UniProtKB/TrEMBL annotation:
Protein name, per record: 3-hydroxyisobutyryl-CoA hydrolase
Domain of life assignment: Bacteria
InterPro entries, per the entry: ClpP/crotonase-like_dom_sf (IPR029045), ECH_dom (IPR045004), HIBYL-CoA-H (IPR032259)
Keywords, ordered alphabetically: Hydrolase
UniProt-listed NCBIfam families: PRK05617.1
Enzyme type, top EC level: hydrolase
EC number of the protein: 3.1.2.4
Annotated Enoyl-CoA hydratase/isomerase domain residues: 17-336
Keyword Signal on entry: no
Signal sequence extent: none
Pfam families referenced in this protein's UniProt entry, alphabetically: ECH_2
The reaction(s) this protein catalyses: 3-hydroxy-2-methylpropanoyl-CoA + H2O = 3-hydroxy-2-methylpropanoate + CoA + H(+)
Length: 355
């Protein structure tokens, strides 16, 4: 059995096909081979009349997926090679495919779901969260910007909630995931095994309905006033000033969080979110994210952020530029330029299939 076969387990049970991400020691972080295996499985099941539903979940009990394999990205960034760009090209294509998949795609967003884990779940048809769900796009903390369609999803969140989550990288639970449009249903984690049994025998909604419960109350709804006011500002500098001057303790804490992030990543992320609101379909946003990701790969901050958070774990990144004032318009604009290795050209998506 190959590593990809070890790391993505495939099986069918009744009318359901199962994708299980199986790198529990790495919180099921995605490798390029895993992305390809998932895509190959979706191709096979798309035309299989016996498969009516596709389900993705994570092994190990700690989460669906903590993101991409950032150690590999770190090595690639230091070496100046293109393996990460090749990985992102296939990963973003997979994200777009999941969003348009013609059969019900059910994501069990139980436990930790971050970065690339959001990409293989939150674009699906049926996104299930539990009391254990912790969802985030924490990229600014490593000198990166939300990708895998994250800027598309967060741009659609009510008010400025998506801007808050994208810039701070804050983790949210089930209630806030539903509020922000990142999930659809709350099911207690203890009910998931029985739900999976029912999905093998019954259509998705018939199987799901008995298990859906009222979602626990989230935290973000109570903070909408300062979030919508502060993050509506036109620049990161003004957002920071509004957070500092608002008076709410949570706003001050958000400002403290932003102060530790990459100044360049913050400005690029804000620009990407604002552009995503007017770009149109997911495919166009993914194309923009690919440009940003390739530019980040050649930047100082991505390798430095991963070093500080994952490699040396000193939690003291030395960002360059080190302040928001030093990040000029040209510094941001270069992240939106066509990459040297060519664009991610996603063909116009077909109309979504009703099921």
């Amino acid at each position: 059995m190959t590593a990809a076969e070890d790391f993505v387990l495939l099986r069918t049970e009744g009318h359901a096909a199962h994708l299980t991400l199986n790198r529990p020691q790495a919180l099921n972080a995605l490798t390029h081979a895993m992305v390809r295996r998932v895509d190959e499985a979706l191709t096979a099941w798309e035309d299989d009349p016996d498969v009516q539903t596709v389900i993705i979940q994570g092994a190990g009990g700690r989460g669906l997926c903590a993101g991409g394999d950032i150690r590999s990205i770190y090595e690639d960034a230091r070496a100046g090679t293109t393996a990460s760009a090749d990985f992102w090209r296939d990963e973003y294509r997979l994200n777009a495919r999941i969003a348009r998949y013609p059969k019900p795609y059910v994501a069990l967003m139980d436990g930790i779901v971050m970065g690339g884990g959001v990409g293989v779940s939150a674009h699906g048809d049926v996104r299930i969260v539990t009391e254990r769900s912790r969802i985030a796009m924490p990229e600014t903390g490593i000198g990166f910007a939300p990708d895998v369609g994250g800027t598309y999803l967060l741009a659609l969140a009510p008010g400025e909630l998506g801007t808050h989550l994208a810039l701070t990288g804050a983790q949210i639970g089930a209630g806030d995931a539903l509020l922000c449009g990142l999930a659809d249903h709350f099911v207690p984690s203890g009910d998931l095994p029985r739900l999976l049994d029912d999905l093998a025998a019954r259509p998705v909604w018939d199987a799901l309905r008995p298990y859906v419960r009222q979602v626990p109350h989230g935290e973000l709804a109570g903070h909408r006033s300062w979030i919508d006011d502060c993050y509506a500002a036109g620049t990161v500098e003004e957002i920071f000033a509004r957070l500092r001057g608002h008076g709410a303790r949570a706003a001050a804490e958000a400002a403290d969080t932003l102060a530790a992030k990459s100044p360049t990543a913050l400005k690029v992320t804000l620009a990407a979110l604002r552009c995503a609101r007017r770009l149109g379909p997911l495919e166009r946003v993914l194309e923009q994210e690919y440009r940003i990701s390739c530019a980040a790969l050649a930047s100082h901050d991505l390798a430095e952020g991963i070093r500080a958070q994952v490699i040396d774990k000193d939690r003291s990144p030395r960002w360059a530029p080190a302040t928001l004032a030093e990040v000029g318009g040209a510094d941001v604009e270069r992240y939106f330029a066509p990459p040297a290795g060519g664009e991610l050209d996603l063909a116009s998506a077909p109309q979504e299939v009703a099921w």
